[in-house]
Specification:
The protein is mainly beta. Helix content is 4%, strand content 56%. The protein has a 4-stranded antiparallel sheet with strand order 1-22-21-20, with no helix packed on it. Strand 12 and strand 13 (167-173) form a beta hairpin. The radius of gyration is 17 Å and the shape is globular. InterPro entries: DUF6929 (IPR053851), Gal_Oxase/kelch_b-propeller (IPR011043).
């Protein structure tokens, strides 16, 4: 991989603690880990819409009660929005119809998450899904290793639907460190049969409590070998938790990133990261 550029594009007022985003047709769809809404931001008009994902949603749900929506992925006309699984109240996956602009199904993944924990040898207190990718045949789910065991694990589930029978694989990764603290997965996206991922360094050994932010990396996993092609530090001050493709060519890939500042302020920064592939 060649050089990169990172720039702040704009702020969105009305969204806090952004944890995932998806770009489509000049609109951004975003989730926040303390919110019960899916947000739709129109880049042209700068209008912001809210679509409820839970009953009686609010924009700032107390930490002990929040569904902790951390991951968003799509296939065809459906968005899939995952709770992190880091507490019993965070086991929900919501399906959202992009054409009808409404929630179509809510799934309880407690049993699936228990199977993943057992298969990946991850204790419940160290389980924290923060990235999801679906290609129509396989689900790639990223466990963020910010618990005591530091298990950065990529789960691969081969199934059309998560309610179907599936085969399951898991791969563990040692990600780079900053100031002696290992980075942890925060999101991923599929580009040309490669998984690009974000990893951040936060000075904490808890899937629940936040810590000081020390920086973030971009990296890539080859799906044939399941090995990391590269990692590159992109910031020393930002905790990036969401990534989506903005444009893609042979020469470069442009991503949009969202930042989680771990505050109650309803303001989200959107960045553009450009990777030179030459």
């Amino acid at each position: 991989m060649g050089n990169f550029t990172l720039e702040l594009l704009f702020h969105i007022i009305g969204i806090g603690s952004a944890s995932g985003l998806f770009y489509k047709e000049n609109s951004l769809l975003l989730i926040g880990d303390n919110s019960g809404f899916l947000y739709e931001y129109h880049l042209d008009s700068k209008a912001l819409e809210q679509h409820p994902l839970i009953q009686n949603p609010t924009a700032n749900i107390p930490k002990s009660e929040k569904p902790d929506f951390e991951s968003i992925t799509h296939f065809q006309d459906t968005l899939y929005i995952f709770g992190s699984g880091s507490t019993p109240k965070r086991n929900t996956m919501v399906e959202f119809d992009l054409n009808k602009k409404k929630k179509i199904k809510t799934n309880n993944l407690v049993d699936l998450y228990a199977v993943m924990q057992s298969f990946g040898d991850i204790k419940p207190e160290d389980f924290n899904l923060e990235g999801a990718v679906y290609d129509g045949d396989n689900w790639y789910l990223f466990n963020r290793g910010n618990g005591v065991s530091n298990k950065n694990t990529l789960f691969t589930l081969h199934a059309k639907k998560l309610s179907d029978e599936f085969s399951l694989l898991s791969n563990d990764y040692k990600l780079p460190k900053i100031k002696g603290i290992r980075s942890t997965f925060t999101d991923g996206v599929l580009v040309n049969d490669k998984l690009y991922f974000l990893a951040t360094v936060e000075d904490t050994q808890s899937t629940y409590d936040d810590g000081a932010i020390l920086g973030s990396f971009i990296g890539r996993i080859d799906l044939e070998t399941m090995k990391i092609d590269f990692t590159k530090k992109i910031t020393s001050i930002n905790k990036f938790e969401g990534i989506t493709v903005f444009s893609n060519s042979k020469e470069k890939i442009e991503f949009l990133l969202c930042e989680d500042k771990d505050t109650d302020e309803l303001k989200t920064a959107i960045y553009k990261l450009v990777l030179d592939l030459k």
